[in-house]
Amino acid sequence: MLREDRIHPIISGNKFRKLKYNLQYVLQKKLEGLITFGGAYSNHIAATAAAGQLMKIKTIGIIRGAELKDSYATNSTLKFASQCGMKLHFVDRAAYKLKDTAQLFDDLAVSPKKYHVLPEGGTNELAIKGCEEILQPQDAQYDYICASVGTGGTIAGLINAALPHQQLIGFSALKGNFQKKTIEEFSEKNNYTITDAYSFGGYAKIDRELIRFMNEFKKNTGIQLDPIYTAKMMYGIIDQIKNGLFSENSCILAVHTGGLQGITGMNTVLKNKNLPQIES
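User: That's the sequence. What structure does it adopt?
Assistant: Structure tokens below.
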């Protein structure tokens, strides 16, 4: 396992990789700050807020869910982002769909010309550049590179950086394989497959089986997985090994993309549903 989660407690894994060159861009262009988007327990929002605080860059987070405005202080992720200095704007889901248009910025009286606008999830050309640095020369020994897939940015960078003998396997955290469109935008290579067979019903969906798996994995290996991405990836890898879907004697590298800050929020959701807790 490639422990990208160890880069930083909050700005970890692919979030660090995606933000690296985007934050440098803000400084180089002498912009006022960075605007980005996310939901209630977004790893991207938390990481952007923390990175902005460390680098003294203003950050604005446009948050999906107007109902969160009066209760965000009870949300571990959003409370943390606010404490880091991120200015939070809460919009309803209809307005959030306009996040790629000028109308949203006009409504919030924010000028995107003075800020660097980073898409939800942090995927853009600069993010891909950062994710291409995940693999290092010592990783040439591996035949398969496995990664969780959300927007598709991280795996696009891995695809670009992979050597000719290496095959990429993306484990989608949500239903569908729409990420191929993003991958094709940033990569010309086709050395990959994406499966949503281990999405557990969709984004942020989790059940007793996945919780059991996460807790047993932590007990047996000492490695904490996150419920949105890496737990689903590892569940899928182990299932595929059991079913003989990897070549015999092959070497597999699983990329741990971090995201552990979201466990606190997820446990709150699980408690409300009378489901077991994720041990951390």
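The first strand starts at residue 2 and ends at 3.
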